[in-house]
């Protein structure tokens, strides 16, 4: 038994002058390539359709050009559902209500509706809330598409009522196959007799497309407009807009790139760090956001191994506010490369994390009497401040004293690393407190 019984292609009115990517959209699931991890016999969508089960509400999460819209449409058609589509960018609550009303009417006639919401992450909470009761009642089967992580952008109530499927960027060999098919397809394809594609040009299109079939077909179409016969690498290069890869400062790429930036800093790779910095700046990221992250990083990951790291990061944030772009890029680059090359220690971060955990678990432990403030005679009679030793009255301005509550008197929260200036700090603390005087908790 075939996983997807073969059926005749779906007829759609696609104008002959529509973009190549639109003309080449798969018309059946048999034409749809890629995403085998979802559609294969062992994938989560394969058994659902093979068994004749109803199509559940779904949210398709994946990068641009991975086939989210096409897959949603084909699955709805295979399940015998009426397909209605709205865009979360262009549509509001009024449009949503109209589609729901029509879906309700169709349901009374015996036909269910798959409501496809493109870029569902663009709907605010109120708009997503408006969808919820109709999904719960089964008025519509919700099919959402998003390039953003649903965990962040889709309300929990909707996520709990839909299955989330992750689509992957298309591989280079698959993109080459899609481009070749578009070149050769006489019915819907490029439609330019005599035009051929040189192998290195095909490879370049697939590489520049970065997993996006729509981008690959757009490059082919644009390169073909520049070629009289064979499409060469030069034609493809001319068709490609010279810009850095997509960066959506409000979306998933935002989180991925800032993560790569911080991890490159932590890994002491200035070349990688400054590259990700450039990606963010060229992509339109708010520079003050980057500056704030540098200040945080200086304490979290450099710390006392190089106390100047925080000075450099703070100065960079202030200097950028005075200078702005474009010269401010130099300031952010200086701070980035300094912090990347600095010795690393997360001892301060670990110290506050450990101390906070104990503070939460043990509650408000009493302050030792010698450390208490004694502004009145009554408090002094009660022993507040009694026995306190002023460190500056002692050699080396240090005196052994118990500064922690009795229950934590031997606890250690801050353990200096052996990196940079913190190595000297560790030696100084050992000289003051001795080895093993304050063992780990």
CA distance, first residue to last residue: 64 Å
Instruction: Outline the low-pLDDT stretches.
Output: 1-11, 437-441
The assigned CATH architecture of the largest domain is 3-Layer(aba) Sandwich
Instruction: Please report which band the strand proportion falls in: under 5%, 5-15%, 15-25%, 25-35%, 35-45% or over 45%.
Output: 5-15%
Q: Can you summarize the main beta sheet? A: 5 strands, parallel
Q: Helix/strand/pairing class, anyone? A: alpha/beta
Compute the number of structural domains. 4
- Helix percent reads 40-55%
Arithmetic mean pLDDT: 84
> What is the 3D form?
elongated
Which assembly state applies to the chains in this document? single chain
Gyration radius, in Å: 31 Å
CATH superfamily of the largest domain: P-loop containing nucleotide triphosphate hydrolases
What is the third-level CATH name, the topology of the largest domain? Rossmann fold
The CATH class designation of the largest domain is Alpha Beta
| Secondary-structure element string | HHHEHEHEHEHHEHEHHEHHHHHHHHH
Could you give the order of strands across the largest sheet? 2-3-4-1-5
Distinct helical segment count: 20
Counting DSSP E segments of at least 2 residues, the number of strands comes to: 7
């Amino acid at each position: 038994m075939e996983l997807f019984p073969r059926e005749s292609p779906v007829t759609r009115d696609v104008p002959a002058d529509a973009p190549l990517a639109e003309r080449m959209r798969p018309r059946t699931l048999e034409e749809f390539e890629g995403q085998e991890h979802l559609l294969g016999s062992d994938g989560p969508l394969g058994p659902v359709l093979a068994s004749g089960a109803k199509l559940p509400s779904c949210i398709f999460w994946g990068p641009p050009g991975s086939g989210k819209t096409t897959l949603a449409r084909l699955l709805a058609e295979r399940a015998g559902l009426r397909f209605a589509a709205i865009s979360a960018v262009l549509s509001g609550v009024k449009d949503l209500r109209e589609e729901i009303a029509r879906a309700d009417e169709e349901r009374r006639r015996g036909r269910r509706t798959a409501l496809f919401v493109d870029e569902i992450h663009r709907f605010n909470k109120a708009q997503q809330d408006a969808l919820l009761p109709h999904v719960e009642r089964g008025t519509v089967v919700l099919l959402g598409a998003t390039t953003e992580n649903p965990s962040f952008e889709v309300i929990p109530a909707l996520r709990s009522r839909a299955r989330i499927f992750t689509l992957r960027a298309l591989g280079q060999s698959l993109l080459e196959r899609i481009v070749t098919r578009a070149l050769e397809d006489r019915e819907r394809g490029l439609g330019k007799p005599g035009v051929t594609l040189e192998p290195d040009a095909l490879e370049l299109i697939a590489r520049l497309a970065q997993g996006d079939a729509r981008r690959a077909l757009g490059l082919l179409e644009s390169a073909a407009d520049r070629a009289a016969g064979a499409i060469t690498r030069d034609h493809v290069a001319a068709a490609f807009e010279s810009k850095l890869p997509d960066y959506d400062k409000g979306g998933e790429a935002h989180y991925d790139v800032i993560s790569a930036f911080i991890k490159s800093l932590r890994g002491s790779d200035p070349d990688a760090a400054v590259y990700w910095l450039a990606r963010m700046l060229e992509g339109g990221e708010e520079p003050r956001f980057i500056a704030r992250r540098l200040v945080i990083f200086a304490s979290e990951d450099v710390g006392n191994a190089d106390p100047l790291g925080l000075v450099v990061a703070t100065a960079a944030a202030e200097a950028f506010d005075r200078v702005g772009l474009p010269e401010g890029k130099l300031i952010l680059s200086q701070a980035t490369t300094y912090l990347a090359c600095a010795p690393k220690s997360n001892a301060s971060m670990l110290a506050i994390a450990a101390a906070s955990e104990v503070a939460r678990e043990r509650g408000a432990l009493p302050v030792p009497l010698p450390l208490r403030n004694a502004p009145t005679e009554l408090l002094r009679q009660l022993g507040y401040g009694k026995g306190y030793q002023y460190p500056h009255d002692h050699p080396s301005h240090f005196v052994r004293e118990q500064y922690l509550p009795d229950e934590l008197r031997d606890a250690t929260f801050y353990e200096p690393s052996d990196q940079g200036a913190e190595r000297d700090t560790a030696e100084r603390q050992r000289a003051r407190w001795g080895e093993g005087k304050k063992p780990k908790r």
